[in-house]
Amino acid sequence: MSSNTKGNLYLIPSLLGASMPGKVIPPENIILVSRIGFFIVEEIKSARRFLTVLGINLQEDPKEFMVFNEHSDKYDVSTYLKPAFDGKDIGILSEAGLPCVADPGSLIVKQAHLSGIRVIPLTGPSSIFLALMASGFNGQNFCFHGYLPVEKSERSRSLKDIERMARKDSSTHIFIETPYRNNQFLEVLLKVCGDNTWLCVALDLSCTNETIISKPISNWKSSKLIDINKRPAVFLISSGNEA
């Protein structure tokens, strides 16, 4: 598949939920993925399910999987690139969205660059950037924080610091949370942030039940809160003074 002596490392976005692959992944990329024989994944079961959804028959066209997640040894990532050294292409698969963005894999990508292996990112959905696009907030100055501290006082302190940054430079700040803690996180946001701060909550992006709500904290407080428990969500805050 590769014309080089070494194989390529493809970064393969996955679906964000129960959406049709053809809606968010280019057909050319689906064909390309079907030709790759080696995959680096977080979980084999979910990776096999995704490839099956793409229309790949894993019984007729078996693939090899290498697991790399938070429990993996981070000190010898070059072992994951062995197929590429042998001239075979490798794909890194995300659990949802983009590989290496709020997702493991960046150490392998760095090692690929050091080893002279070509890294090729493929097009696909990103909940972070879809949410930013739809928020109405500043898209030229933003920061993704990932998960905030779980401990209540630390989380409140972090939000206060971030809110001050948003007011200082009109920047957008983006967070994610474990879905079963969404409701609690929303309650903390409404309690800690000032009434004039804007909050966007983007749910089930690219799926049929996609919901995006963007308004000042004061409006959130005065309206009935929706139940966002166990729904994949992205949270964004802004000073509301982008103009």
How would you describe this protein?
With 243 residues, the chain is α/β, with parallel strands linked by helices. The chain has two domains: 9-121, Cobalt-precorrin-4 Transmethylase, domain 1 (3-Layer(aba) Sandwich); 127-238, Tetrapyrrole methylase, C-terminal domain (Methyltransferase, Cobalt-precorrin-4 Transmethylase, Domain 2), CATH 3.30.950. Helix content is 33%, strand content 19%. It has nine helices and ten strands. It has helices spanning 21-24, 27-34, 44-53, 82-85, 106-114, 127-135, 152-169, 182-192, 217-222, and strands at 9-12, 38-41, 64-67, 90-93, 119-121, 142-144, 172-176, 198-203, 211-216, 233-238. A five-stranded parallel sheet has the order 3-2-4-1-5. A five-stranded mixed sheet has the order 6-7-10-8-9. The longest helix is centred in the middle third of the chain and has 18 residues, at 152-169. The termini are far apart. The mean pLDDT is 92.
Keywords:
five-stranded parallel sheet, five-stranded mixed sheet, elongated, 243 residues, Cobalt-precorrin-4 Transmethylase, domain 1, 2 domains, 10 strands, alpha/beta, Methyltransferase, Cobalt-precorrin-4 Transmethylase, Domain 2, single chain
